[in-house]
Specification:
141 residues; alpha/beta; 5-stranded parallel beta sheet; two-stranded antiparallel sheet; globular
Length: 141
């Protein structure tokens, strides 16, 4: 069966119920899309937790080398990695009991989606979290 994203209403409910977003592949370079998207989400009131083994702090938040190193619950795992690199991220998202596994625009991996879904996570692929949030919650959460 081909993968299908949740409905817009389901995505809206997920965003409204979520506070903490772990961003895998968040760059510390302000000109990168991952930085711009995460900064915008942070300004909207989401708690951004950077996941990048090559940085110690991004957007004023402590950066962790992996999802498993984050010492608090995570609502959404937002992924900025190449499609072929996201299966281990899905496995880790299940392990930390995140609520959702979100692959940014241009990222699609059926195997990763199957792993996350089997682990009980809501799965969104090939969509920008900032765009969805702006459309579905224009006035804020």
């Amino acid at each position: 069966m081909a993968f299908e994203n949740p409905s817009r209403e389901q995505i809206k409910a997920l965003l409204q119920a979520s506070q903490t977003v772990a961003v895998v592949g968040l760059s510390d370079k302000p000109d990168r899309v991952s930085y711009m998207v995460s900064e915008a989400m942070q300004k909207k009131g989401y708690r951004i937790i950077p996941v990048n083994p090559n940085a110690t702090e991004i957007l004023g938040e402590t950066c962790y080398p992996s999802l498993s190193d984050i010492p608090e619950p995570v609502d959404i795992v937002n992924v900025f990695r190449k499609s072929e690199l996201v299966v281990p991220v899905a496995e880790e998202a299940v392990k930390i009991k995140a609520k959702a596994f979100w692959l940014q625009q241009g990222i699609f991996n059926e195997e990763a989606a199957d792993i996350a879904k089997a682990g009980g996570l809501e799965v969104i692929m090939d969509r920008c979290i900032k765009v969805e949030d702006s459309i579905l919650l224009p006035g804020g959460k």
